[in-house]
Amino acid sequence: MSDCDINKTTPIQSPSREALSEKGALAVSINGFQTREQQQATTEAIEKAVNSAGSRLIVEAGTGTGKTFAYLVPALLSGKKTLISTGTKNLQDQLYSKDLPKVTQALKLPCLRALLKGRANYLCKHRLRQALEGVAFRSPQTAKEIAKIEAWSHQTSRGDIAEVASIAENAAVWPLVTSNTDNCLGQLCADYDTCFVVQARRKAMEADVIVVNHHLFLADVALKEEGFGELLPNVEVVILDEAHQIPDVATRFFGDSLSSRQIKELCRDVESEYEEVAIDMRQLLDASERLKIAVDEWRLAFPFESIKDAWTSLQPIPQMQAAMEKLLTILAHLHELLKSAQDRSKGLEACFKRTQQIQWMVERIKCYPQENIKAVTESATIDAQSNTKQPQSIAWFETYSQSFVLHLSPLSIAQQFGSLLADPKQSWIFTSATLAVQKDFEHFAEKLGVSSFQALQVESPFDFAKQALVYVPRYLPNVQSPLYYSELMERVFPLINANPGGTFLLFTSHRALKLAQQLIADKIDVPILVQGDKSKQQLLREFEKAKRACLLGTGSFWEGVDIRGQALSLVVIDKLPFASPTDPILKAQIKHLKENGLEPFNTLQIPNAIISLKQGAGRLIRDIEDHGVLVIGDPRLIAKDYGQLFMASLPSMSRTRDNKKAIAFLKNLKPSE
């Protein structure tokens, strides 16, 4: 690895620098565009990587750098086929619909671009026909929605279900008329040539720039679906924005999982096929009904509350073993019925294969941690899956009110992800505002198996020393103390009331959030918004509209939230964001590191927590005109030696431990207009 920083950047003008200069193409075309040396340093480094086949560049660009334009300009100027993946669908839409057209127009370059979504975002013609044939068995509301979708299906050219705005995003009808990796018939489908998913991917194959999100990118790469099986090898440049999310997302998609929902969807599809082509095989319907009951009984063997934990905590329980044995017996019976019926339709053939896959996964979970799982079928598909060499995995589960998910997740994704980087013709750029730990990128690179890379860390152009104050309260009890949150909130109440703008209270657990909600209920004079009461987007809209509200949130509000101005001028973080010690993947990783002679706290837990803290702190200052106070309640920030590592990773804000100074800073801010 070799490092470079803004002070080492060669002042030689590059085409990308020129485009982003004071008199460059973007300044001429885009109103309000401001030239930033940090952005130019970033774009020059990315330009070199884009134009050097086989290069690997990791860029941490501080808030306000303008990293989106910094990578779009060299990617477009290069003329190379580029894949851009970002963290969420919202960011994906922003990039595709706003940023990319702006830069393309400014550079006056022809660019064929494509927005690629997951298959569940597109209408499936085959499943729509099935839904129409079974409409008599649906609720009146669902039947009405199916009719509306059928009418729309004759008008749409893209099949993107977002076009049907009158039907809620989470409506029960959508799984009936869209496909997933389990129930898609692929090339066996009679509608394959006119399939909206296939058409979208063909368009992506022809595009100069393809915009996706991390979940789609990694799901398709991990599953080796047809779209990326063809697409990725033909891409010359891969840009991963919000790259700090990649390790966690990849861990989920490079493993295997089985949910109660998957099994029930299989039952639903078997019943649809029964109604359509196998009405004489009443046994299919009976077996499906029995399987649904068996899944519900299996759920009863799990804890009632919504938790996640290691599978080994439940595996030996007799009720659990009995429930799995019963399920496997019914699956085996259904498998035999589908084997004899599979020639009747492509749908039944797909159900037959899905039954095999579910059997295989249940056997793997039941026999964990044995590596040699007994063969449950003679299917080449299953054999291929069971013989795939996987890294050491941890089995764990998640429970919800009426469902559960079982996971087999790799302890490390470095080998699998690193293999994606093997093509010597491809350039890979990883960028985010939070990738480095004490100016070191090794922690991030090791997670992803990036063995050789260039690195650039660019500080934010904001004047944090003047714009922000970080306040660490004095005399708080230990974070484990039952008095901790009441004491912390006592310090925070006067700040919220003195703040002329909005407040974020960010918590490391839902339990802490609920406790704080009770504590502040009658102590502050501003509206209170709480995560979970409404959708995230609705809460953020209400928060900004109120101009002076208090929003309580956990994980999802720590990042991907961009609120500018005095609408957000106080951010309170309850504790250093160490992952929960009960997290099953973390526990397994800690055990694995110890077995290999490594110290997990310093090599894993602290770096992960630093990245998370940087994300949370990054909500405060989003613009050159922003001002505010960051409160970090955790006394370990001062009392423990490792607290210095956290402080050193934050922007250079002014610091205080004096509550009165924090209040005075807020009172001096201009009220929201």
Tell me what the structure shows:
By secondary structure, the protein is of the alpha/beta class. Mean pLDDT is 90; it is low at 1-11 and 371-390. Helix 3 packs parallel to helix 4, helix 13 (260-277) runs antiparallel to helix 16 (346-367) and helix 15 (318-341) runs antiparallel to helix 16. It is globular, with a radius of gyration of 27 Å. The strands form three sheets. The chain has an eight-stranded parallel β-sheet with strand order 1-12-2-11-6-3-5-4, sandwiched between helices. It has 28 helices and 19 strands.
What does this entry show, briefly?
With 673 residues, the chain is α/β, with parallel strands linked by helices.
Q: Unreliable segments (pLDDT under 50, ≥5 consecutive)?
A: 1-11, 371-390
Distance between the termini: 49 Å
Whole-number mean pLDDT: 90
| Major sheet attributes | 8 strands, parallel
How big a fraction of the residues is strand? 5-15%
Quaternary status: single chain
Structural class: alpha/beta
Shape: globular
Total number of β-strand segments?
A: 19
Across the major sheet, the strand order is 1-12-2-11-6-3-5-4
Instruction: Report the helical percentage.
Output: 40-55%
SS element count, helices = 28
> What gyration radius follows from the Cα positions, in whole Å?
27 Å
